[in-house]
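Side project, low priority. Logging it here so it doesn't get lost.
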Amino acid sequence: MSSDGDDLYSVFIDYEQKRNFSIHDVSHDRVMQTTAQNDFEMQKRTLKHILKDQEFNIPEYQRSYSWTEHQHRQFWDDIRQFVNADLITDEENVSDVFFSTMYFAVDADSEVYDVIDGQQRLTTTHILLRVILEHLQEIEKAAIEEDELADLWEWERNTIEELLYVVGDYGQREPRLTLNKHDAEFFDALIQGTEAQIDYLTSDLEFDIHGNNSNAIRISRCRERFGITTDELGELDVADSLPSNRFFRLYDSHEKLLSAYEFYHKKIKTIVDRADTTDDMVRALLNVSRYLQHAFHVGEYVIRQAEADFRMQIFEILNDRGVELTKIDRIRAAVVNAFYDPEDGDNYIRKWESIVSEFGGDDGRIDDYLSVYLTTVDADVDTIGDASDELTNAFDTRKLDGKATPRLEDPEDAKEFISRADELVGYYKQITDPDLDRGDLQLAAHKQEIQEILIRLNVQGMDQWRPLVLALYFHADANSEADAATLYNVLDAIEKLNFRRLLVSENPNIFSNIFIEAVDEFELSPLGDTGLENELDRTLIEYLIDHTRSEAASLFGDRFINLATQAQDWNTRSTKLLFGRITHEHYRNSGGNLERTLDMSGIHIEHVLPQTPVTDSTEPVWLPKFFPPESTEEDLVEAVDRYLELEHRKRTESEADLKENEEKDRAKIEEYIKQRFIDDLGNFLLLGEGDNIRASNRPLSQKLPQYYNHVDEFTSIHPNRYFTPDEGPTDRDELENLRAQYEAKHNDATQRTKIDEDLKEEFNSLWTHATMKDRRVELLLDILETLRFDALEDEFGMETSEEETHEKVRELTDEVFENRISLQSL
């Protein structure tokens, strides 16, 4: 430490000057400026005076703990200037601190202060004092050489404990600060130490959830972050009873509390590690603790015997300056205030807390849910986006300028509004769950089909369907097969409409009002008690079709066929989902196992003509075979040859790169091939992840054996049928011969086995732009079949004359490809 003068480690700063010390001490006013103490004309107290002999309660209308590292760094900066200062007598190199104002409310018959403003700073101060206490507790008194310093060490431990804890009615130690119900139990464990933390980790909270869940943390990881060692587990004899590998939900505010503890633990540990001796360590800890207690000044305002509304008004005006109140913070405050007085008010506050807990305290997810919920109950809110903007108006006691009706104005309406919001959370989480288990659906039938559609809808970039589906699902009788069929049929129609939108590149905003207005039109608000009427699905689907057609006629009839046929540069995610739908539909219509499903999480889009069609520029295989001279316009063949030449030069020339105009030509031809052929519907199939990686950019003669690694899965995927002997141009005997030769080569350790060259040539020549066009026609017909509506009589002509529809799609595709293989589009 400093040898030139006094510093944090060598001198004891005396703030109270009530006794004479034999150790090296100095009065605080001789080493620091006392600006906050002397220059503010207001009633102010030190932090120690605020904390001493007082209990604090964070009211339920307050936000949860929200400080992040940004605020912690700002707080620590005030302490750091003291830690790093030269504490030399008569040189005021450090200042005390004005730590903002704190507003408290207290009733005449209560000893507990409600914290109206300042809870973030108050909570953080308790965490920092707890960290300092832990470091003091780690020091053995016998290791301190100076007796008076040892006495001060013991005295400071007792002081911090008195500031942090109070003795409860039954003699147990309890924190002086109680957070709101959402955070109280976790904070108590954090602030009380190891045994309380282990009790928390072995309690009956929301443990044993899946690790993929939002905010999930393994118990062993949380134990490590608490700082609980394996030795401590052994001493407490809980090593075997702690379910270390299980997961539980660490809510957002709990994560922030734990992160605060870790932040200050790291800062204090750095100070401790810099000490040369145990005595230096003690002095440093005492000085930091006492600087926080005595040099941090607070403007204290106490409101006595104030009505709840008055306290709320102050809260709304005086939110913590460190972090602005979020929308969900304000809604929470409004809910608590609305149910402050009723006898059963706590019940509805608990319902609100249940909603918050279901989403792990994540404001964004809570906002998403409440916005969808509001659109189902308020006919004046037109879109989910509008609903998000109107949430604070809906959760209010008086009508303001917004569209939404204030739902907390009438006590009985408020109870119904909050109760139904709590009740619908489970339904909402199921319909938006990307890992939905069909067994969780509260339906009497069609669980598998509904699960498949919901999982696909949730990754299609459109959420406007959620209000309508939420309302239908809520009203569906769990024991009624008819209600389950209604939900399935409407979901099926919604997915068909959205797939059509995706295929013609229509904006999702065409659905902004349609699904929400349907809730009101068919009186499906969850605040009503009506069930699902007979034939509701038929009339509702007709409504959706009619209103969508008025917004986007391109999604129907011949216009849809034309646009879908002309589409290029197909989106792989949408195509994968569409192929999945076609496959599942084929499973059910083929008369086989109706319960069979395709696990789409392990399935990927495979490009037959690879995304990187040139792997070896000295012997390119793919492009010369895909564009054979005998069936390709001469100009296009020359362009492909030009591309191969430039690609080879780019990879092999040792001098400068291609000339600018040559690189432009190369990139232009490459993009042309990619958009018109590689990323085309006809070039896609579905493969399992491992097979997709192994097939990669290889020639087709090497890809096909990889396709057949899992033959049952590959051939069961209906869009893959072109590459099966039953429905494609592949000869069964030749395919089996090819697979046998590749298996023999794979098993030959000597690497002497060769593949028959004629066989390789046969399969490498199989995939051309002409064969891709043929397959594309079949896939377009599959799409028309899976997306057609029974409500639209023979919309695509497939019922009266499937052959004519086939020919129409063939002619349109011929026109498209005639243009594609012409250099006019290049």
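Brief comment: The radius of gyration is 36 Å.
Revisit when time allows.
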